[in-house]
Amino acid sequence: MSITFEQAMTERRFHQGACSVSYGKTGKARPKVALVEWRRNGRTQTWKTRPGEFSIPIKHGLHDYGYLTNNITYFHLASECPALAEADRWWAAYEAGAFTGRL
Description:
Layout: H1 5-10, E1 13-22, E2 32-40, E3 45-46, E4 54-60, E5 64-69, E6 75-77, H2 82-96
Antiparallel strand pairs: 1-2, 1-6, 2-4, 3-4, 4-5
């Protein structure tokens, strides 16, 4: 799943790699989401001569910096993270009282 130009202009958080969700032994413990989150650290750079290309400065923690470019495949948007969606479904079932274990 590649990041499009429109998404690159608006998104502020990106996840690296495959995010995962783990549960307790019985499946009733809170889900723990394992992810590596990078944040936008500046303005998206675009070029007039290459309209489809972009470069986003990002940071992770205090000392890790990098750039996302238009040909990346190892990152995905935080707003479209499947692991966070699964954890949200778990919490919704838990708060509604319909919790029976893993979803």
